[in-house]
Specification:
Blueprint: H1 2-12, E1 14-18, E2 24-28, E3 37-41, E4 44-48, H2 57-61, H3 67-86, H4 91-104, E5 114-116, E6 119-124, E7 133-138, E8 146-150, H5 151-154, E9 162-168, E10 174-180, E11 187-193, E12 198-213, E13 219-225, E14 232-239, E15 248-252, E16 259-264, E17 270-276, E18 281-287, E19 296-297, E20 307-312, E21 315-320, E22 329-334, E23 344-347, E24 353-360, E25 364-371, E26 374-381, E27 387-389, E28 398-401, E29 411-417, E30 424-429, E31 435-440, E32 453-461, E33 467-475, E34 486-489, H6 507-510, E35 515-520, H7 529-533, H8 541-556, E36 565-570, H9 572-583, E37 590-594, H10 600-604, H11 616-619, H12 625-634, E38 647-653, H13 662-674, E39 681-686, H14 697-714
Parallel strand pairs: 34-35, 34-36, 36-37, 37-38, 38-39
Antiparallel strand pairs: 1-2, 3-4, 5-6, 6-7, 7-8, 9-10, 10-11, 11-12, 12-13, 13-14, 14-15, 16-17, 17-18, 18-19, 20-21, 21-22, 22-23, 24-25, 25-26, 26-27, 28-29, 29-30, 30-31, 32-33, 33-35
Helix pairs in contact: 4-14, 8-9
Length: 720
């Protein structure tokens, strides 16, 4: 049977295109070499024909490539060449869409300034620049601008460049910053003297990028990564002007299922070390005035006990799931009596409301809650004189509280947008309840009118009786019927909720007659913590079933048809794509799987791969046979079989630290081996980037245009 399939594939994997003279030429898809590798666990033997595609960082970084490395590079290059040839006819459309999106974006844009420790800080872009300029002004916005970093200058000579972790010392004279030029999220921390613009010799490598100044302006705490697994595992203390090799290890997270980080309380009193995994957390604090002191634990870690802390006056305020508070509640404890037996309720647990976050100010506290899928912002004064929710009018929207570094203020800064309303940054006066819109996102070009678009939520019945929210947006002139193209998107893992927000780039699809549908499937926390718990571990298939049920609803109710339904997801959302096309490939005409996590069994059995050990409580540990069998039953790579698959575009980055490039590469090779259709199957590997794609703002728009052009090509819509 396998031979018959391969013969059919050799015929089907030929795609007709045209050369410059209009003559038809034939482009043959790459066929990856098969080198069978037997993988055994729990008595189960899997044969992986493409295991050889896996390279170590040392192999990738070597100046002279060994034979295996060259073979992998040659294969990825051949796939990229095939992608370019097949999509050549979309290049004009890609350029049109790119210029269209770019033309709607204000290029010489700037953030709303925020004030901290006597300075207004601003992030701005100049016309034509790929990267931001970070600046500040002392005391007044009329003061002379001081350029902290022009990232465009810093990025010269690099194919990828990311500046992060910008952290100003309490004396305002020093800035710690971090650089990644590989896109593997391994940052090098350096220090700049803001009075002289000198970059000090201090150089700290292989960090998360984040750092925290002690109040002495010379001690810097930071988190370092394991060089192999990239797990954030150690907190070090660096003294300004010393060799990083002399840095003091202040904490090591020895539990391989945990990561660690360091931050500073908003009150500036404490340096805070956090340890976390999927189901538990632990915090330690140190007075920021005594950086050579000893950290003390707030509450020792316990399995299934999660908590976050914030310091205010003589108490720590704690968001926690203690006492079975599935949706979390707010508690507090005396500053010097912090173990859990001292915690008392401030805001109790509610079955219908997820307590997501909180921000502390001198006179009031702000709580971010989610009820019936929508974010609610609640303001409660410490003296009890006021407790109210901010009003939002649209049926579905996204609202979020900014970091608000100013502690002693009556102004709360937040953002608001919806699928039809561009984003605004708003200052809300909690005393008189007035709003000051500091900035509205501009949509240039003179053609955008929010009233031309319609958004709504549909509640889709799932196969087990639950209701799934499906948020859709479309142009008011779009006719909804079986021929309407729909792009259905979702993520559905880690409890991460994608809110219903505005997208300038998405207008290019909506204006061409597409409906965009965002499925709030299980695995997110859209409907509370239980919505997440019901879409992980041994209930992970609910995530996939929900997405499929939404697709079937759209088809059954004549919003579209399988010939015009498209799906897209990235990372764990790419796993979603892989699962649903194995389960119900007939529902979709085309799928984009971006940096997809598709070789779940092999990855979760390999604790040398970044993220693996910390994710046992998300997917299950396949060293346990029950989890092994369950994961294998949906793992996209393991479940590829002889069937017809939709048209597909799979993207990845060679330096991806979150989902290694070989997962999508192997998946595409195996799909080519088994698929019985003549639909497109394309793999595009960015040889310069990692999980987040291109670093420049315009380069990332080109990737979006490339994706949109793929869908429009499948619709037969190559005209502009």
């Amino acid at each position: 049977m396998r031979k018959i399939i391969l013969i059919a594939l050799s015929i089907n994997l030929i795609f007709a295109s045209c050369n410059k003279d209009g003559m038809k030429v034939k482009t043959k898809a790459p066929v990856a070499e098969k080198q069978p590798t037997k993988l055994e666990k729990h008595g189960d033997v899997r044969e992986d024909n493409y295991f050889w595609m896996r390279l170590t960082d040392a192999q990738k970084n070597a100046e002279v490539k060994d034979e295996q490395t060259q073979k992998v590079y040659d294969y990825l290059t051949s796939e990229n060449n095939y992608f370019e040839k097949v999509t050549e006819k979309t290049k004009n459309l890609q350029e049109v869409i790119f210029e269209e999106i770019k033309g709607k974006i204000k290029e010489d844009d700037a953030s709303v300034p925020y004030k901290e420790n006597g300075y207004f800080y601003i992030t701005r872009y100049e016309k034509g620049d790929q990267y931001p300029i970070y600046s500040r002004k002392k005391e007044s916005l009329d003061a002379t601008e001081e350029i902290l970093f022009d990232v465009n200058e810093e990025a010269k000579g690099h194919d990828y460049f990311q500046l992060g972790g910008l952290n100003i010392a309490p004396n305002n004279k020093l800035a710690a910053f971090a650089i990644d030029t590989v896109s593997r999220r391994q940052y090098t921390i350096q220090i700049k003297d803001l009075t002289t613009n000198e970059i000090y010799q201090d150089k700290i490598e292989n960090t998360t990028g984040g750092s925290v100044w002690a109040n002495d302006n010379k001690t810097l705490f930071y988190a370092k990564k394991d060089p192999v697994t990239l797990r954030s595992s150690q907190i070090f203390k660096h003294t300004l002007g010393t060799d990083a090799a002399e840095d003091v290890l202040v904490f090591e997270e020895k539990d391989e299922t945990f990561g660690t980080f360091v931050t500073k309380s908003k009150s500036k009193k404490y340096i805070v070390i956090g340890s976390y995994n999927t189901v538990s957390t632990e915090y330690q604090v140190l007075n920021a005035d005594t950086p050579d002191g000893t950290f003390r634990i707030i509450q020792p870690r316990e399995r299934d006990l999660e908590y976050d802390i914030a310091h205010y006056r003589d108490h720590f305020y704690i968001r926690t799931n203690k006492d079975g508070a599935t949706n979390f509640k707010l508690m507090k404890t005396p500053e010097n009596k912090t173990s859990k037996e001292n915690w008392v309720d401030v805001i109790p647990h509610r079955e219908d409301t997820l307590f997501e976050d909180f921000s502390i100010f001198k006179e009031f506290i702000v709580l971010e809650e989610r009820n019936e899928g929508l974010t609610k912002i609640r303001i409660k004064r410490w003296d009890g004189t006021d407790d109210y929710y901010m009003p939002f009018d649209e049926e579905t929207y996204s609202a979020s509280v900014y970091s608000n570094p100013d502690f002693d203020t009556d102004i709360l800064r937040y953002s608001y947008n919806s699928m039809t309303t561009p984003s605004s940054v708003i200052d809300f006066n909690v005393k008189d309840k007035t709003k000051d819109i500091k900035k509205e996102q501009e949509v240039l070009g003179g053609t955008f009118n929010k009233d031309n678009y319609i958004s709504k939520r549909i509640w889709v019945p799932a196969r087990d009786g639950k209701k799934i929210a499906l948020s859709i947006v479309y142009h008011k002139d779009t006719e909804i019927n079986e021929n309407t193209p729909i792009l259905q998107y979702a993520y559905g893992s880690y409890g991460y909720t994608i809110s219903d927000g505005f997208s300038i780039s998405r207008l290019s699809l909506l204006d061409r007659g597409f409906i965009f549908a965002l499925a709030h499937i299980r695995g997110s926390q859209y409907l509370g913590r239980d919505w997440y718990e019901d879409g992980k571990m041994l209930r992970k298939k609910n995530t996939f079933n929900d997405f499929i049920d939404c697709s079937k609803y759209l088809i059954d109710n004549k919003y579209t048809s399988p010939a015009h339904l498209y799906a897209m997801g990235g990372s764990a959302g790419g796993l979603l794509m892989g699962a649903v096309i194995n389960m119900n490939p007939e529902l979709y005409n085309g799928v984009i799987a971006a940096v997809p996590f598709v070789d779940v069994i092999s990855t979760m059995l390999d604790d040398s791969i970044p993220l693996t050990t910390g994710e046992y409580d998300e997917w299950g540990n396949p060293n346990n046979k029950e989890y092994y069998d369950y994961i294998k039953s949906y793992s996209p790579y393991d479940q590829v079989s002889a069937k017809a698959y939709p048209n597909m575009l799979v993207t990845t980055g060679l330096h991806d630290s979150q989902v290694q490039y070989w997962e999508p590469a192997k998946w595409v090779a195996k799909l080519r081996e088994f698929k019985t259709d003549d639909n497109l199957l394309l793999l595009h590997t960015n040889m310069e980037t990692g999980h987040g794609g291109a670093s420049g703002r315009f380069d990332s728009l080109k990737e979006t245009a490339e994706e949109y052009a793929f869908f429009l090509m499948l619709e037969g819509r190559l005209e502009n």
